[in-house]
Write a structure and sequence with these properties.
Layout lengths: L2 H20 L3 H17 L1 H18 L3 H7 L3 H16 L7 E6 L5 E8 L2 E6 L3 H13 L3 E5 L5 H17 L7 E3 L6 H6 L8 E5 L2 H10 L12 E5 L5 H13 L8 E7 L3 H15 L2 E4 L1 H7 L6 E4 L13 E7 L2 H11 L4 E5 L3 H10 L4 E4 L19 E2 L7 E2 L6 E8 L7
Parallel strand pairs: 3-4, 3-6, 4-5, 7-8, 7-12, 8-11, 9-10, 9-11, 12-13
Antiparallel strand pairs: 1-2, 2-16, 14-15
Helix pairs in contact: 2-5, 2-7, 3-7, 5-6, 6-7, 10-11
Amino acid sequence: MTVAAELEAMGQAARRASKALARLTSRVKDEALHNVARLLLERQDDILEANRLDMEEGQRMGLMEATLDRLALSPDKLRTIAQDVLNVARLPDPVGEIFDMRVLPNGMQVGKRRVPLGVIAAIYESRPNVTVDISCLCFKAGNACILRGGKEALHSNQALVRAIREAIAQAGGPVDAVQLVEQTDRALVGQLLKMRQYIDLVVPRGGAELIHFVVENATMPVLMGGVGVCHTYVDRSADLDKAVKVVDNAKTRRWSICNALDTLLVHRDIAPRFLPLIGKVWAEKGIEMRCDDEALAILQGIEGLKLRPAQPNDFGKEFLAPVAAVKVVSSLDEALDHIDRYGTGHSDAIITEDYSAALRFLDEVDTAVVYVNASTQFTDGAQFGLGAEIIDSTQKTIARGPVGLKEITTYKWIVLGNGHVRP
């Protein structure tokens, strides 16, 4: 069988599996997810060995540190992934939910019933946990999925998908509900994007180049994330202890993820007190601060701090590294204008004790997730009570922000009459 024919066969199998999934009971779906969580831990040695091969190959290929960080699995990470699967299993099944039901003046009942989308294709890079997240969310929401991970995670993804398919089979579900494209030829992505007769939605997760290619070439709807240039603005009324804690967490908890702080904006009135405090913390953690002239002058002299003058392209840049751009602003208006110009609609935060400033920030920042006095690193489906996420969507159609079960369903209108005819 040619590779093209193999993809065609996967599309046909996914469509058949989606029909079977739509009829599957919640009990069977949840049993399959419990099996997935169990097998991830039972097969830990095999999965970690596969991941070791990917890590070694990635190091030989010279992958960036951020990419390797996202690629790496460990016993602790597997336990976390398995727990997320169980959290998805505990969530209410969205399929079959009837909502917006009402009785018309003529006595007919009209409403909506939630149904699966059908088949979802996911094209992504680096992160093996995405394989589990997407598979389990799609399965619970009644969707089949075709997964095309990056070549850097091929061995990990193969081991994970074997476990997932076995878990589905043990529960009596359709194993082709989850399929992995194991060929790594990039040309296959273009073919996958033409299979609209089988695929109802495509989800790209990765760098700007991948996302642009999918958006430009897909013949089916695209649920798009994007580059996450995340801002935190420290307002003039901010509590300094709170601001240091939140800003540090937003940058250093994990700097290789899309919801990590990239640009720190600080009001001029508070900058002389706040910047030395965060500078001392970041000096200990090795964070490089690329500062405008005003911030640079304030931070000079802090021992061990990595300081560089900011270049124009440092603002609006997703670093995915222990680097942050820093700018002093004269007002909330200037901070809002900066975020509007350089933001990517992912996650932005304000640290303030001023209720009016907080409300303006919530109202005027046009981004998927807006925070007051909290770290942007909370932008995550599991943290938002969704169990896991398909993607952090930065677009304004289909879904926005962390995408969970309900966001990967649609609905059909249902009409209940009693011999009604239209006059």
